[in-house]
Amino acid sequence: AGDSGRADLRERAFTALTAARARTALLTDAVSDRDLTAQHSPLMSPLVWDLAHIGNQEELWLLRNVAGHDSLHPEIDPLYDAFQHPRAERPKLPLLGPAEARRYAAEVRGRVFDLLERTALEGSALLDDGFAFGMIAQHEQQHDETMLITHQLRPGEPVLTAPDPGPPQGPPPAAAEVLVPGGPFTMGTSAEPWSLDNERPAHDRDTGAFWIDTVPVTNSAYQAFVADGGYRDERWWAPEGWDQIHRHGIEAPLFWRREAGQWLRRRFGVTEPVPADEPVLHVSWYEADAYARWAGRRLPTEAEWEKAARHDPATGRSTRYPWGDEDPTPAHANLGQRHLRPAPAGSYPAGASPLGVRQLIGDVWEWTSSDFLPYPGFRAFPYREYSEVFFGPEHKVLRGGSFAVDPVACRGTFRNWDLPVRRQIFSGFRTARDA
Ligand code: AVJ
Ligand code: FE
User: Fold this and answer.
1) Residue 377 above 60 pLDDT?
2) Among 122, 143, 150, 136, CA closest to 40
3) Beta strand 365-372 pairing with 427-428
4) pLDDT at residue 120 tops 80
5) Model confidence pLDDT, tens digit, residues 41-97
6) What is the pLDDT of residues 240-288, one digit of tens each?
7) What is the helix (H) or strand (E) element at residue 36, kind and residue range?
8) Which stretches does UniProt call biased (Basic and acidic residues) (predicted)?
9) What pLDDT score was predicted for residue 3?
10) 3-state class of 383 per DSSP?
């Protein structure tokens, strides 16, 4: 990289860490101390847990593992190990209070900035290209998305605001679906310096020819499924999904409610009519799968999704993003909590793939049909608990990121996963069919 390359990496790491902390502060300063320590849903931690966990992971990886320091406060380390305490139990732990958690995270960050200034960003897998710093910035941004989910679940008056995305910039796409040719493409990456273990290594993958939706499935399309009795027709549902909607009386996406013949939704404390042209949000994998069957289609596989997002048929190369190799800008995608909702379907023509598929990055996480599995040649790094322990048929892969995820934690190769019953996440989908 040379000296100027390393100065750039240092700057990149500094900027990414600083942006993450600004977002964390915004999400945690917006509510009272009482609210920070409350548990708004058994699915989520109290916000004050996320705050100290962010600091604790940063201390663990950068101060202890990279710099070789001893633990600053050994007695708190077990409290913030996600594997020792399930989310539902966290409010009962002797957690740091809001002021202590803020002080702790700030103390760690001060030491991390000293370390970043004096450490060579090379010489070990953790340090090369500033990986550990990038991993920690991504970790904090992932928890900032988690905390935004907690905000969405909390009752009470709105505390977060952001401008709306506005109408699409330019004409709508010419066709509802796009044909992706069959054949091999490069999936995953061995080059992206801050890619996480499950995105690696780059490898050849073959797909048949398939059609994929140009835009994510919208609320109005989803409403047609609801209105057609989709939630009452067992034909469309995987057995476990059918069980789930009956056990919980589910008949629409999470946060929707029907009143006087109209669908309303609650979004960050505001009740509003469900906007017809916005990608559907807060559906489980089962709901996405059922809709696709009802529509005579199917969810794309993870490989199909990535091929649609990265394969350039003109060059045969896989790019970092649908629009090319350039980092995301606000013209490409709805990322980073700039807006607190997805943008209307058809937005971001500048972010389209070479074949014209839009909104693959940002807006809503897209369920794929695939189980979360390792790529050939996968090696857990730097810890098995990031992804390896989650591999298997119980988790389904989501791709592309939502409006809530920061660009540092979102790229064409980025893989997210969750249980197929989950719907509090910022999840939507698009459909596909064999050609
Ligand atoms: C990749 C979003 C599934 O939140 O469970 C945060 C990210 N891992 N801390 C999660 C993560 C450890 C992870 N997801
Ligand atoms: Fe974490």
Assistant:
1) yes
2) 150
3) parallel
4) yes
5) 999 999 999 999 999 999 999 999 999 999 999 999 999 999 999 998 999 999 999
6) 999 999 999 999 999 999 999 999 999 999 999 999 999 999 999 999 9
7) helix 33-37
8) 305-314
9) 62
10) coil
Q: Taking a C-beta distance cutoff of 8 angstroms, is the pair 169, 149 a contact?
A: no
* ipTM attached to this prediction: 0.99
Cα 206 from Cα 219, distance rounded (Å): 32
Rounded to the nearest 10 degrees, the angle between the axes of helix 239-247 and helix 285-294 is 120
Testing ligand 1's pocket by substitution, the residue of 49, 80, 142, 416 carrying the most ligand atoms inside 8 A of its CB is: 142
Ligand 1 centroid from CA 5, angstroms: 30
Whether 44 and 153 have beta carbons less than 8 Å apart is answered as yes
| Rounded mean pLDDT, 412-429 | 98
Name the closest ligand to CA 410: 1
Tokens 């969405």 belong to: 152
298 in a labelled binding site: no
- Cα 230 to chain centroid, rounded: 27
> How high is the pLDDT of residue 285?
99
Instruction: Say if residues 80 and 104 touch (Cβ distance below 8 Å).
Output: no
Please report the beta strands in 171-238, taking only residues with DSSP state E, as ranges in sequence order. 177-180, 183-187, 203-207, 210-213
Asked whether 262 and 273 are in contact (CB, 8 A), the reply is yes
User: From start to end of 49-163, where are the E strands?
Assistant: none
User: Is ligand 1 within 6 A of the CB of residue 387?
Assistant: no
- Position of tokens 């916005």? 278
Measured CA to CA, the distance from residue 412 to residue 399 in angstroms comes to 8
Measured CA to CA, the distance from residue 70 to residue 429 in angstroms comes to 45
Structure confidence by residue, pLDDT tens digits, 152-173: 999 999 999 999 999 999 999 9
Q: Find where tokens 């909590």 sit.
A: 337
Q: Residue 88 annotated as binding? A: yes
> Maximum Cα–Cα distance for the chain, whole Å?
65
Amino acid at the residue 19: A
pLDDT at 1: 45
Q: Is the CB–ligand 1 distance for residue 416 below 6 Å?
A: yes
- Among protein residues, the one with the nearest Cα to ligand 1's atom 14 is 416
